[in-house]
Amino acid sequence: MTDHSANILSLYHRNAQTWAQKRGDTVREDCWLKPFLDLIPQSKSVLDIGCGSGLPIGRYFIENGCDVTAVDGALDMVKIAQVNLPEAQVLHADMRDLDLNRQFGGILAWNSSFHLTPEDQRGLFPIFRQHAALNAPLMFTSGTGHGTAMGTFEGETLYHGSLAPDEYRDLLAQNGFELLRHKVEDPDCGRLTVWLAQYRGLSSLT
Predict the structure, then answer these.
(1) Separation of alpha carbons 74 and 92, rounded Å
(2) Rounded Cα gap, residues 43 and 24, in angstroms
(3) DSSP 96
(4) I want to staple 25 with a disulfide (CB 3.0 to 4.6 A). Which of 55, 73, 103, 111 is the partner?
Protein backbone atom coordinates (compact mmCIF):
# COMPACT_ATOMS: atom_id res chain seq x y z
CA MET A 1 0.00 0.00 0.00
CA THR A 2 1.28 3.46 -0.89
CA ASP A 3 2.11 5.67 2.09
CA HIS A 4 0.66 8.90 0.77
CA SER A 5 1.65 10.79 3.91
CA ALA A 6 5.32 10.15 3.10
CA ASN A 7 4.92 11.64 -0.39
CA ILE A 8 3.72 15.11 0.63
CA LEU A 9 7.04 16.93 0.41
CA SER A 10 8.00 15.37 -2.90
CA LEU A 11 4.53 16.15 -4.29
CA TYR A 12 4.86 19.84 -3.39
CA HIS A 13 8.45 19.89 -4.64
CA ARG A 14 7.47 18.54 -8.05
CA ASN A 15 4.42 20.77 -8.36
CA ALA A 16 5.70 23.92 -6.68
CA GLN A 17 5.29 26.25 -9.65
CA THR A 18 1.78 25.01 -10.39
CA TRP A 19 0.74 25.33 -6.76
CA ALA A 20 2.14 28.85 -6.53
CA GLN A 21 0.26 29.92 -9.65
CA LYS A 22 -3.01 28.45 -8.44
CA ARG A 23 -2.64 29.86 -4.93
CA GLY A 24 -1.98 33.36 -6.28
CA ASP A 25 -1.36 36.40 -4.12
CA THR A 26 -4.86 37.30 -2.92
CA VAL A 27 -5.37 37.32 0.85
CA ARG A 28 -8.57 35.43 1.67
CA GLU A 29 -7.83 34.79 5.34
CA ASP A 30 -7.84 38.29 6.80
CA CYS A 31 -10.62 37.43 9.27
CA TRP A 32 -8.07 35.22 11.05
CA LEU A 33 -4.77 36.84 10.09
CA LYS A 34 -5.77 40.19 11.59
CA PRO A 35 -6.62 38.81 15.09
CA PHE A 36 -3.38 36.78 15.00
CA LEU A 37 -1.40 39.89 14.04
CA ASP A 38 -3.01 41.92 16.83
CA LEU A 39 -1.70 39.42 19.42
CA ILE A 40 1.94 39.55 18.30
CA PRO A 41 4.21 41.46 20.73
CA GLN A 42 6.06 44.59 19.67
CA SER A 43 8.98 42.58 18.30
CA LYS A 44 6.62 41.31 15.57
CA SER A 45 8.68 38.26 14.70
CA VAL A 46 6.67 35.56 12.94
CA LEU A 47 7.57 31.94 12.21
CA ASP A 48 5.61 30.67 9.21
CA ILE A 49 5.82 26.85 9.25
CA GLY A 50 4.99 25.34 5.88
CA CYS A 51 5.19 28.68 4.10
CA GLY A 52 4.64 27.41 0.56
CA SER A 53 5.40 30.10 -2.01
CA GLY A 54 5.38 32.85 0.63
CA LEU A 55 2.34 34.43 -1.00
CA PRO A 56 0.06 35.80 0.11
CA ILE A 57 0.52 35.12 3.84
CA GLY A 58 4.23 35.77 4.28
CA ARG A 59 3.86 38.95 2.27
CA TYR A 60 0.87 39.98 4.43
CA PHE A 61 2.95 39.86 7.59
CA ILE A 62 5.91 41.66 6.03
CA GLU A 63 3.62 44.43 4.82
CA ASN A 64 2.30 44.71 8.39
CA GLY A 65 5.76 45.30 9.80
CA CYS A 66 6.71 41.78 10.83
CA ASP A 67 10.11 40.13 10.70
CA VAL A 68 9.26 36.84 8.98
CA THR A 69 11.12 33.56 9.17
CA ALA A 70 9.53 31.09 6.75
CA VAL A 71 10.24 27.38 6.49
CA ASP A 72 9.08 24.66 4.13
CA GLY A 73 10.12 21.09 3.53
CA ALA A 74 9.72 21.17 -0.27
CA LEU A 75 12.92 22.57 -1.77
CA ASP A 76 11.43 24.06 -4.94
CA MET A 77 8.73 25.75 -2.84
CA VAL A 78 11.47 27.30 -0.73
CA LYS A 79 13.19 28.62 -3.85
CA ILE A 80 9.97 30.32 -4.95
CA ALA A 81 9.41 31.79 -1.48
CA GLN A 82 12.95 33.17 -1.42
CA VAL A 83 12.17 35.13 -4.59
CA ASN A 84 8.75 36.25 -3.37
CA LEU A 85 9.96 37.27 0.10
CA PRO A 86 13.44 38.78 -0.30
CA GLU A 87 13.02 40.56 3.05
CA ALA A 88 12.41 37.30 4.93
CA GLN A 89 14.64 34.50 6.06
CA VAL A 90 13.37 31.49 4.11
CA LEU A 91 14.69 28.10 5.16
CA HIS A 92 14.46 24.57 3.81
CA ALA A 93 13.44 22.48 6.84
CA ASP A 94 11.04 19.71 7.81
CA MET A 95 8.60 20.93 10.45
CA ARG A 96 8.71 17.54 12.18
CA ASP A 97 12.22 18.13 13.50
CA LEU A 98 12.43 21.90 13.36
CA ASP A 99 14.93 23.43 15.78
CA LEU A 100 15.84 27.06 15.09
CA ASN A 101 17.17 27.79 18.60
CA ARG A 102 15.13 30.96 18.99
CA GLN A 103 11.64 32.11 19.99
CA PHE A 104 9.16 34.06 17.92
CA GLY A 105 6.39 36.53 18.66
CA GLY A 106 3.93 34.51 16.57
CA ILE A 107 3.81 31.01 15.08
CA LEU A 108 1.69 30.04 12.10
CA ALA A 109 1.08 26.63 10.53
CA TRP A 110 -1.58 27.55 7.99
CA ASN A 111 -2.76 24.69 5.78
CA SER A 112 0.48 22.86 6.44
CA SER A 113 0.49 20.79 9.63
CA PHE A 114 -2.67 18.97 8.54
CA HIS A 115 -0.55 17.18 5.92
CA LEU A 116 1.19 15.32 8.76
CA THR A 117 -0.01 12.02 10.17
CA PRO A 118 -1.84 12.22 13.52
CA GLU A 119 1.25 10.79 15.23
CA ASP A 120 3.52 13.43 13.70
CA GLN A 121 1.06 16.16 14.60
CA ARG A 122 1.29 15.15 18.25
CA GLY A 123 5.04 15.67 18.07
CA LEU A 124 4.62 19.11 16.58
CA PHE A 125 3.19 20.77 19.69
CA PRO A 126 6.43 20.64 21.69
CA ILE A 127 8.09 22.19 18.62
CA PHE A 128 5.51 24.99 18.69
CA ARG A 129 6.26 25.48 22.40
CA GLN A 130 10.02 25.45 21.83
CA HIS A 131 9.76 28.32 19.32
CA ALA A 132 7.13 30.43 21.09
CA ALA A 133 8.00 33.56 23.06
CA LEU A 134 5.80 34.25 26.07
CA ASN A 135 2.32 35.39 24.93
CA ALA A 136 3.05 34.51 21.31
CA PRO A 137 -0.05 33.54 19.33
CA LEU A 138 -0.16 30.17 17.60
CA MET A 139 -2.54 29.57 14.72
CA PHE A 140 -3.04 26.41 12.70
CA THR A 141 -5.66 24.61 10.64
CA SER A 142 -6.92 21.06 11.07
CA GLY A 143 -9.57 18.60 10.05
CA THR A 144 -12.86 18.32 11.90
CA GLY A 145 -12.23 14.98 13.59
CA HIS A 146 -9.66 12.23 14.07
CA GLY A 147 -8.70 10.44 10.89
CA THR A 148 -7.30 10.87 7.41
CA ALA A 149 -8.68 12.27 4.19
CA MET A 150 -7.34 12.11 0.66
CA GLY A 151 -7.57 14.92 -1.83
CA THR A 152 -5.85 15.32 -5.18
CA PHE A 153 -3.47 17.82 -6.69
CA GLU A 154 -2.33 17.61 -10.30
CA GLY A 155 -3.63 14.06 -10.46
CA GLU A 156 -1.70 12.92 -7.39
CA THR A 157 -3.12 11.84 -4.06
CA LEU A 158 -2.84 14.58 -1.43
CA TYR A 159 -2.83 13.34 2.17
CA HIS A 160 -4.53 15.12 5.08
CA GLY A 161 -4.55 13.97 8.70
CA SER A 162 -6.28 15.24 11.81
CA LEU A 163 -6.61 14.63 15.50
CA ALA A 164 -9.88 14.83 17.40
CA PRO A 165 -10.78 18.34 18.65
CA ASP A 166 -10.42 17.28 22.29
CA GLU A 167 -6.91 16.02 21.64
CA TYR A 168 -5.89 19.31 20.04
CA ARG A 169 -7.24 21.07 23.13
CA ASP A 170 -5.28 18.73 25.40
CA LEU A 171 -2.05 19.15 23.42
CA LEU A 172 -2.37 22.93 23.51
CA ALA A 173 -2.92 22.93 27.27
CA GLN A 174 -0.13 20.42 27.95
CA ASN A 175 2.31 22.66 26.08
CA GLY A 176 1.33 25.91 27.76
CA PHE A 177 -1.04 27.34 25.14
CA GLU A 178 -4.37 28.92 26.03
CA LEU A 179 -7.03 28.37 23.39
CA LEU A 180 -8.56 31.71 22.43
CA ARG A 181 -10.71 30.89 19.43
CA HIS A 182 -11.69 27.85 17.39
CA LYS A 183 -14.00 27.65 14.40
CA VAL A 184 -15.05 24.50 12.56
CA GLU A 185 -15.33 24.90 8.78
CA ASP A 186 -15.48 28.67 8.97
CA PRO A 187 -17.72 29.84 6.10
CA ASP A 188 -15.90 33.18 6.07
CA CYS A 189 -12.54 31.51 5.48
CA GLY A 190 -13.03 28.90 2.79
CA ARG A 191 -14.54 26.44 5.29
CA LEU A 192 -11.20 25.95 7.00
CA THR A 193 -11.15 24.67 10.57
CA VAL A 194 -8.95 27.10 12.48
CA TRP A 195 -7.35 27.19 15.93
CA LEU A 196 -5.96 30.36 17.54
CA ALA A 197 -4.11 30.03 20.85
CA GLN A 198 -1.57 31.99 22.90
CA TYR A 199 1.52 30.72 24.71
CA ARG A 200 1.26 31.36 28.46
CA GLY A 201 4.21 29.24 29.57
CA LEU A 202 4.29 25.83 31.20
CA SER A 203 4.11 27.39 34.67
CA SER A 204 0.52 28.37 33.88
CA LEU A 205 -0.42 24.69 34.10
CA THR A 206 0.62 24.29 37.74
Answers:
(1) 7
(2) 28
(3) G
(4) 55
List the one residue out of 125, 147, 130, 146 whose CA is nearest residue 197: 125
Q: Which residues of the chain have pLDDT under 50?
A: 1, 204-206
Helix ranges restricted to H, 91-141:
118-131
Compute the mean pLDDT over every residue in the chain, rounded to the nearest whole number: 94
- Inter-helix orientation angle 165-174/118-131, to 10°: 30
Distance in angstroms (rounded) separating the CA atoms of residues 154 and 173: 38
- Percent of the chain residues past pLDDT 90, beyond the cut: 84
Question: Residue 54's closest CA among 15, 96, 24?
Answer: 24
Helix (H, G, I), strand (E, B) or coil at 85: coil
Q: Which residues contact 12 (CB under 8 A, 6 or more apart)?
A: 19, 52, 72, 73, 74, 76, 77
Q: Tell me the whole-structure pTM to 2 decimals.
A: 0.94
* pLDDT tens by residue, 92-144: 999 999 999 999 999 999 999 999 999 999 999 999 999 999 999 999 999 99
Please, which residues have CB within 8 angstroms of residue 56's CB and are 6 or more apart in sequence? 23, 24, 25, 26, 27
- Contact between 171 and 123 (Cβ < 8 Å): no
* CA–CA separation, 35 and 205 (whole Å): 24
